[in-house]
Design goal:
Layout lengths: L1 E7 L11 E5 L6 H9 L6 E3 L7 H14 L5 E3 L7 H7 L4 E4 L4 H11 L2 H9 L4 E4 L1 H4 L5 E2 L6 E2 L8 E5 L7 H10 L4 E5 L4 E5 L3 E6 L3 E5 L8 E3 L5 E8 L5 E5 L6
Parallel strand pairs: 2-6, 3-4, 3-5, 5-6, 9-10, 13-15
Antiparallel strand pairs: 1-12, 1-14, 2-11, 7-8, 10-13, 11-12, 15-16
């Protein structure tokens, strides 16, 4: 399994905090990505929030089993429909947060209903690692893709300055992401394929883990001080530009640094 890193400065409108996001594009979860999530845990339980699925207990058991096999412990779940004030206080003591897949709109609906968005953002900025897969990846930006073509809505917004799409190559979603980027001229994009993980640290460093590709879409070279592509087999950089007709097109950069 390939593990490759690039260094990005100012690509994501950097937030200056020591936070880690582990974004999985769906499908099989790369063990190296889950292990890194465990390595970054802060004191406190791992809370799994399976709010995007109709089968939250099953979703929780699946990810708990994977994490425990890799050495994690004290893994808890907020599986119930009602999110109580006691749950809120417990979540505030989290050492890590994991969002399984499902429907990103349902996840955000539960976040809004529980009034947990400011708390989740605060935990992340304090260094609590956050991981997600599929829909749990989609929510991490604001705006987020809803899953209905290129439609967007409010997301959790832990990662500023871009829009993320998942199942990227398997489901042929480049055009969808490009259409979303047309609507937000200041945002860049990232497409994560199935069985791939993009680990983003300090909103600056991106590590790709898995057998396929993570694709970065940037619009303006002047925003970037330095990009180092260590291995183009795992990480692909494309420049998204708008032509006179208003349609966004891309070109793949073949050199290894700018």
């Amino acid at each position: 399994m390939r593990v490759k890193k690039i260094f990005l400065l100012l690509l994501f409108s950097c937030n200056l905090h020591a936070a880690t996001l582990v974004l999985i594009g769906g499908g099989e979860h790369p063990k190296a990505a889950l292990s890194y999530f465990i390595q970054k845990l802060q004191p406190g339980p791992i809370y799994v929030l399976p709010w995007g699925t109709s089968y939250p207990e099953e979703s929780f058991e699946d990810i708990r089993s994977e994490l425990e096999k890799l050495g994690a412990h004290d893994i808890q779940c907020f599986c119930k429909e009602v999110f109580t004030p006691e749950n809120y206080r417990a979540l505030a003591r989290a050492g890590g947060i994991y969002f399984p897949g499902g429907d990103q709109n349902k996840i955000m609906q539960r976040i809004f209903q529980s009034h947990a968005k400011p708390l989740l953002q605060d935990l992340y900025q304090k260094g609590v690692p956050v991981a997600g897969t599929s829909a749990g990846t989609a929510i991490q930006t604001n705006p987020m893709l809803t899953g209905n073509r290129a439609e967007t809505s409010e997301g959790l917004g832990l990662l500023a300055g871009l829009i993320v799409d998942q199942h990227f190559l398997v489901r042929g979603r480049e055009e969808r992401l490009l259409q979303a980027l047309e609507a937000f001229p200041t945002l860049n994009g990232i497409g994560i394929d199935e069985s791939m993980s993009a680990i983003i640290e300090d909103s600056t460093y991106v590590t790709a883990i898995g057998p396929s590709l993570v694709t970065l879409y940037i619009k303006n070279h002047s925003e970037i001080k330095k990009i180092e592509l260590i291995d183009k087999q795992s990480l692909r950089l494309k420049v998204a530009s708008r032509r006179s007709g208003g349609r966004t097109t891309t070109s793949t950069k073949s050199t290894t640094s700018y």
